[in-house]
Amino acid sequence: MAATPIFEARGVEKAFPGVLALKGVNISLSPGSIHALLGENGAGKSTLIKVITGVHQPTAGAMFLDGVETSFASPRDAIAKGIGVVHQERNLFPRFSVAENIHLEQLATSYLKPVDYARLNREARPWLEALELDLDPATLVSELSVARMQLVEIAKALSLKSRVLLLDEPTASLTSSETDRLFSILRRLRDDGTSLVFVSHKLEEVQEICDRVTVLRDGANACDGLSMQGVDRNQLVQMMIGRAEGAAVWRHRDTSAQPEVLGLRGVSTVLGHRDITLSVRKGEIVGLYGLVGVGRTELAKAIMGQFPVTGGEVRVHGKTVQIGSVADAVHRHGLGYISEDRKTEGLILQHSVLANAGVPIWRKLSRAFGSLSDGRIETVVTPFLRKLEVKTPSLAQIVGNLSGGNQQKISVAKWLAAGVSFLIVDEPSVGIDIKTKAYLHDLLRELADNGTAILLISSDMPEMIALADRIAVMDNYRIKGEVANTGVYADISRNIMDLIHGPQASAVAV
Amino acid sequence: MIQISRLSRTDWFGPLLATVIGITIVQSFSATFLSAYNVQILLLAIAVNALVAFSQMIIIAIGQMNLSVGAIGGLAAISFAGALEVWGLPAPIALVFALFVGALCGMANGILIRITGISAFVITLATLSIYKGINLGITEAQPFYGIPDSVKNFGSALLIGPIPWLVVPTLLITLLLWFMLRRLPIGRFILAVGSNDHAAALSGISVGVTVVAAHAISGFLAAMAGVLVVARLQIGQPSIGDDWLILSFAAPVIGGAILAGGHVSTTATLLGVVIVAIITQALVLFSIDPFLVQVVLGAMILAAVGLNKLRARQPLKGSI
Fold this sequence. Notes:
Chain A is of the alpha/beta class and 510 residues long. Helix content of chain A is 37%, strand content 25%. A six-stranded mixed beta sheet of chain A has the order 6-7-8-3-9-10, with helices on both faces. Chain B has 14 helices and two strands, in the order αααααααββααααααα. Chain B has helices spanning 2-9, 13-29, 36-61, 69-85, 91-116, 120-139, 149-156, 167-183, 185-195, 197-202, 207-233, 245-254, 266-285, 292-319; strands spanning 158-160, 163-164. The longest helix of chain B is centred in the C-terminal third of the chain and has 28 residues, at 292-319. Chain A binds chain B through residues 75-76, 79, 87, 90-96, 100, 104-105, 107-108, 110-115, 142-145, and chain B through 179, 183-186, 188-189, 191-192, 195-196, 198-206, 209, 213, 262-263, 315, 319.
């Protein structure tokens, strides 16, 4: 290794009741480098980050700062010793100013010394400038965009003289141009000698920006500080899941003879959709592509009856219908929606696995038997949970106690169990690890082959190409056109971009 | 236009407008509304009710609620009166004792909430009963009458014109609270914890200390209100505080407080108290059934919460 590491962890173990989350992990962070920390959900990444940032105390092993053994009693202690972290969830106070958010840490030393806002603003400015953030420090955080909030969090971490900066999925909510900007800032920080740790599921980004990589698998190192040079995507995947990535093969299927399951003709909604025409046939996977915020999720919710359709015609199995409520959509018409926001819209975290997976079929089962029996639900639900490899000690386990990946699997399983004939899948692989993603893709294909019509909403182009039979392109609450999936990435992405930005796009307004 | 829309986003503008309109309307119907005597009555009510509202406001700021505001106020009131009558303590010492009792009760609420992790609703519901029970155990539901003249005089004396002395402590506390929530770290921490306690902890704020401090302040303010009522009534009634609960929520909410925590306004809460006082007074002046006051208060809480919801959406639209 070129320089002495700023931070090093050796043989770190962390035991939780019943689980050994980390089984002797090593990681070594050098100054002036961007270090990727990879691993599937449940591999121990989050636990390792929590140990490094002082949230958890390791059960065994040692940590060193500049070669001197150290330990972190609390997050504050870690911060004081130069370990900064930008968490995946936003940790800013929206009603406080940018400057106060950045400096709250320094205020926390005293309870009664009056706050000097002029000084806070003055002191915040250099950190904002360092990140090329043209921003009045007195601005309220609530008035910023998500990307700017994230930069404010980075400014906050830097202002604490962090020499090690951990970024947990920093690009999850950024657009690609915002990501580029973030990367150029990260590179500059690296050149100034900061040691950055980059946690992400997006391997393309990791390859673009990181120079070293540590991969965790099942709570142990699959590699430790490997140089990124000469490591290709496949090797990373292999280290993460212990096998090579099953290449997502696109297969051409002809579904044109199948009957239409869901048809929209010139539909407009209260949310601002105009003239949406879309058709999904039995056994077909139709992609709905578009950038974040162009109305894809909103369309899904309108189809599901959450928002009123104001014009046009909605047909389910060839019959014109009016879907008045979500319950109507699920029970009468057999439509299902797997939300992008699984935690708040997809699951009831305080309830058991069984209860969550069984929600959509309660009505169906109770109608046949008069009352609900857990055993009956169990027999319907279990095969799907098993197929998705949901790791849970029992069906009575509270969903909130399971890992994020497992929660996501359950939210998928419940609709599979409900046996809907039309399923909207909204950004199914956001925040999901590669292995689960591959299973999920297999599963969606299998569902389609068995006759389920699927509308796939995704911003992940490779995913679109791997799954969709055709791709409808949406922009600004309108369908701009459709692209047939030929399996050729370059062609499809050019066609899609033509539809969104091309000359014909602006002309189409019928 | 732009300035008006900016003003409408502040917490105090709406309540101020309502206050001015309210005064104008009531005055136009009843010329005696702004008479010296009536203003004095209004100010006396506001002096006590503002402290009650602040006591709840500080707990709303941390995203909790305190059902025991009235019970603490009552216990502090009879502590004050009892210390004067039974122990014969001088008034300033009895005052300190009563405020200490209030802060201690509040602190007990905060500590119980932190240690047990049980919701503030349940804890303060339980302590409401406990504090009220202690109150009744001590007094056997009989008032203390032995209030010294110094206290009685303070409760009825006028500062200048129709302005009673009783408003002075309330005014000072309003300024202090305003300064605390704006400028003092403890005030900022209370708002930060109310906004997102997880993020507050990661920023190095001790959530436990902040929560307990907020409850202690709440108890202190309730006790202050209780003492002022004793000075005004000139007896230590055990039933002091029994009817504070609705008002304690109404004023902060009319003042734009967000019940989920993280956002309250001292000035707007004070205006909320003024609005409630004006309406109550108006109903009396127009000799409308006083029981209707409760109905009006309830309706105002509903309306204010609805308005706050609308307002919360507005800035979002502007920034996208």
